[in-house]
Amino acid sequence: MADADQHALPPEPEQDPPHPAPNNRMFAGARVYRWQMYADPALMYLNLINWIIARLEERAAQDGLEATETHQFEGQEYTYRLTARSGFFIILVVPPVDYTDNGQDLALAFSFKDLYLLGFLDAGLWRLFDDADLNGTGDQPNGPAHTKIGFQGGYSGNVFTETMLSLTTLVQSYETLKDTGRRENREIRTALLVFIFVISEGLRFMEWKNHLHLLFQDGGRQEAPDSGGRIFSFLFQD
């Protein structure tokens, strides 16, 4: 499920940017969004979330699903946005305009089925979580278009209290995934978790998305739990 923000947003681009790996057929046909960091941090985030939600609704309709589903619980009516049965989307993470290291876009692949991150593009080859669902990707489990990262995408350890989230850590995560040859698996995993927490969980849980929106408004750096002391996972509700 996901929640769309009602803020006034600029019009969507008329067409997607070019596919980041035209010679790699792994995610051929996936929708692509160019995510420019920093320009207006809070709006930057809402633009991303709303673009994905619009594409999710389109994909669900292609799969013959309604966009939302309503349920009654303890006398209250709740409406949920449904995920699709298939399909993928790619987020091109673009470094800030004043970035001095001649950075290139970072391509992240996500699934419309559960909204989770599958992996990232590294020198024309997709590096995917060991447990990534490849059904419908256009490549075989051991095909030439991708390789396994070496670890799974689930949460373990103290990730909820040790992961730092801010504009700074977004850029640091971008830098890590563009320089994997000199990074340890621990650093790569942390960088991927930052994008999972910001994008996937922001799509899945409204309260967490609102928390991140406020975080980006003030540009602060903090651990995943907010200043009120609530546990990170408690925000993964509704």
From TrEMBL:
Top-rank lineage group of the source organism: Eukaryota
Pfam families per the UniProt record, alphabetical: RIP
Family annotation (SUPFAM superfamilies): Ribosome inactivating proteins (RIP)
Region (Disordered) residue spans: 1-23
GO biological process: negative regulation of translation
Gene3D superfamilies in the cross-refs: Ricin (A subunit), domain 1
Single GO MF annotation: rRNA N-glycosylase activity
Protein name: Uncharacterized protein
